[in-house]
Structure formats: C-alpha cells, structure tokens
Amino acid sequence: MLYAAVNNNAVLALDGTTGQFRWQTRFADTIRDLALAPTNPLQLYVSTSSGQLAALDSSSGYLHWLRSLAE
User: Fold this and answer.
1) Between the N and C ends of the chain, which has fewer C-beta atoms within 10 Å?
2) Can you give the residue range of the structural domain that contains 36?
3) Number of domains the chain is built from
C-alpha cells in the first residue's frame, strides 16, 4: 500500500502493485506528516498543523483515535 497526503487535508491510499485507489480520509487541518510505525504496521499515524495526532487503520482509513498534542 502507498500513502500520500493530498490537497493539504486528505490522506489517500493506493495499491502498491496496481495503483488502484483504496481509500481516502479527510481532516479539518493541513496534514504535516504521515508515518507507519514498525511496531504496528496496521496503523498509519497522521499529524496536523493544529497539533493533532491521529491513528488510521492502514487498510481502510478508519479513524481509530485523534488526540490534541498542542498545549
């Protein structure tokens, strides 16, 4: 699976072999970074410009949780 931040506030996933669109998840804020943790490749972590951190299901884009890291 390939993941990309697009249009400043959306994450999309494409099949790495076929290039076929799999899912898209939108956020209210600009996306700053995406990461897959080696300890949990089933979750894709997304940080936003407002200091939020989200965990998405890497196969479906389902939002598992969203936390504010801003003080």
Assistant:
1) C
2) 2-68
3) 1
Q: What is the CATH number of the domain that holds 44?
A: 2.40.10.480
SS (H, E, C) the chain: CEEEEECCCEEEEECCCCCCEEEEEECCCCEEEEEEECCEEEEEEEEECCCEEEEEECCCCCEEEEEECCC
Nearest to 13 by CA among 42, 52, 51, 53: 42
Question: In what order do the strands lie in the sheet containing 21-26?
Answer: 2-6, 10-14, 21-26
pTM of the model: 0.89
